[in-house]
Amino acid sequence: MRFAQPVEVSLNTKNSGRWLEVGNYRVWQLVLHSEGAKSLNLIFDRYKLPDGARLFLFSADQSDLIGAFTSKNNSANGVFASSPVAGDQLVVQYEEPVNAAFEAELSIRQVNHDFIGIQSLKSERRPLGHAAGDCNINVNCDWLDAYRDEKNAACRIIVSGIDLCSGALVNNTRNDGTPYVYTAGHCISTNKDANESVFLFNYESPYCGDIDGDASHSLSGSALRATSDSLDFALVELSAAPPPEYRPYYLGWDRSTTPPDSSASIHHPSGDVKKITIDRNKALVKTYSQDYVDNGFWYIGSWEEGTTEGGSSGAALINHKKRLIGSLTGGAATCESPYRDYFARLDLAWNYYPQENKQLKRWLDPGNSNVQSISGFSPFTAENLCGAYTNLRDEDTHANLQIMEQGVSKGYWSGTNDYGFMAFAERIEKSVSAELSGVSIGVGALSLGRSNSEGKISIAVYSGNHYPERLLYIQDYSLKSLDKGVMNYLAFNQRVETEGVFFIVCSIELLEESDVFSVLLAKREVEPLNSFFIQDGNEWYTYQEKTNGQEGSAMLMEVILCHVDTLVSDDSLKKANLEIEVFPNPFHSGQELLIKFDKPINPYRVEVFDLMGRQVSVRYEHPGDRWLSFDFSGLVPGHYLLNIVDAGRKRNYQTKVVYLGDY
């Protein structure tokens, strides 16, 4: 999927820009302008920095900044590709210590003019300025927990600054963490493409709801190891392995010629946050077109869940054992018609051609073991094994929750307001012990009165049980560095050791009267209600205590925990594990779905949602004090979430069911 027009240039520290002396640094600054561009990104054909030097790229108003890039980004080929920066003006700023070991080599070969809008505004990192089709399913829905490892293999790829594709990390028989990425040959066909690609990991919504993800976990550059245009595959090796905080996972693979009984693909449709598509039927072997090898593709006749779009090309197809078997070449699937997709077969890419640069075998089986399949691989263990955790649930929705007084807004419960509540907290109960490396927050409102505003948010970690008690760590971040309407990852300068329950406390400081800021919140009416707290003076209060209501809340936040010692399975912040029996499940049209409860129930709310969170109408009856029956006739086959609230105890019962439709 092409989103940018390349402009060839020859700009370097010798012939362009200006040099300044600032303290102990020599600073080179270059301002680029491409009128009408939604964003700009750069390809450096020479990038070699000495230790201690830093490179930043930012928009003219400094509202969008990436970097610092350092000598750690040096590569053997000297090529460096940047992620997009919003707007049609881009400032390149290089800072070199006066006592640097050598003078940097910096030369820009290509400026890429984004004409679609991959990052046109701070709240629009998505191409076309909107999300992928409504039928697409966020990969972090609770019911997709079976794919919690495999999702961490998927990445979005910007190729040579102008094209969007998907790909996935893939394991080899040595289990040595060599950072291979598998994608389509029509995405990356030359070593130049590989050198100039940017690979983005963890670009996803933290829960089943739809919010633009954090886009900071990227790696620039790779080397092409193998490709074939007639088999449409490419294998590249990243210039650096993803670090622990990226939570990488390397897919296992299966080179069997047997069609999979079911399959799934995790990808970035239209360059959007990570989605998943699922086919519960056996794939077929078919020919895609005369440009490719005959019978070289797994054919997906129909997706039961989700679809693919432009930008999904190169996405991994995995079988029921969660092993890689192919990559997306193309097809006709859409939300309206999720049919007919073609994935290039991995078993043919294995050694169809004898040349090492046209086959996978040389790279994925370096010891020539000749095995048919291998399992996936997590390269990190113990203190370097990290995971992302949130208190939000599938049934949650997020919003800017305002303080209302006689119909007039007085600001936000989790941000600026007229009452002086400037600190708020989220209670986290995820592990017996862990090391916290950072948090990601969903910013709802952000408006600074002046471009040089000194407003900041302090992120603190407190121990405590019912309320924050003892400070463990605190770090400040400029509000100018945050993006509105998206997740923002705030990395800590050091890991913070936690034991049991802890709190993330957010405080906003140095604001001017016209500044506005808030963190997005969930709104809840059922148990367990609340993990969100507000500080008034020196005292902490639950959301219910401050609102004098029965609704609870949770902050739209994701914590990155490493070295986790036993996850808390009976998590009080997740829905209670209430005893119900559901049968039959799965079930067909004409069959009555029955739910038996552990205690008598008086349902005052019975809701049924599809996977996109849309409420659907289903007939139900209450034939006994512990029973409900449902008739799904006329609904589209698929997964559904039932949400039932007991009027007497205000307890929430939930279950997921699979409706198969007609026999």
Provide a concise account of the structure shown.
It comes from Sunxiuqinia dokdonensis. The protein folds into 4 domains: 4-114, Spermadhesin, CUB domain (Jelly Rolls), CATH 2.60.120; 137-374, Thrombin, subunit H (Beta Barrel), CATH 2.40.10; 386-562, Jelly Rolls (Sandwich), CATH 2.60.120; 580-659, Sandwich (Immunoglobulin-like). It has 4 helices and 51 strands.
How is the secondary structure organized here?
Blueprint: E1 4-12, E2 18-22, E3 25-33, E4 39-48, E5 54-59, E6 65-69, E7 80-81, E8 85-86, E9 89-97, E10 105-114, E11 137-138, E12 154-159, E13 163-170, E14 180-183, H1 191-195, E15 198-201, E16 218-220, E17 222-228, E18 233-238, E19 252-254, E20 263-267, E21 275-279, E22 284-286, E23 297-302, E24 316-319, E25 323-331, E26 339-345, H2 346-351, H3 361-364, E27 373-374, E28 386-390, E29 398-399, E30 402-405, E31 408-412, E32 423-428, E33 431-447, E34 456-463, E35 470-478, E36 487-499, E37 502-509, E38 516-519, E39 521-524, E40 532-536, E41 539-542, H4 543-547, E42 552-555, E43 557-567, E44 580-583, E45 593-597, E46 603-610, E47 615-616, E48 619-624, E49 627-631, E50 638-646, E51 652-659
Parallel strand pairs: 19-25
Antiparallel strand pairs: 1-10, 2-3, 3-9, 4-7, 4-8, 4-10, 5-6, 5-9, 11-21, 12-13, 12-15, 13-14, 14-18, 15-16, 17-18, 19-27, 20-21, 20-24, 22-23, 23-26, 24-25, 25-26, 28-43, 29-39, 30-31, 32-37, 32-40, 33-36, 33-38, 33-43, 34-35, 34-37, 39-42, 40-41, 44-45, 45-49, 46-47, 46-50, 48-49, 50-51
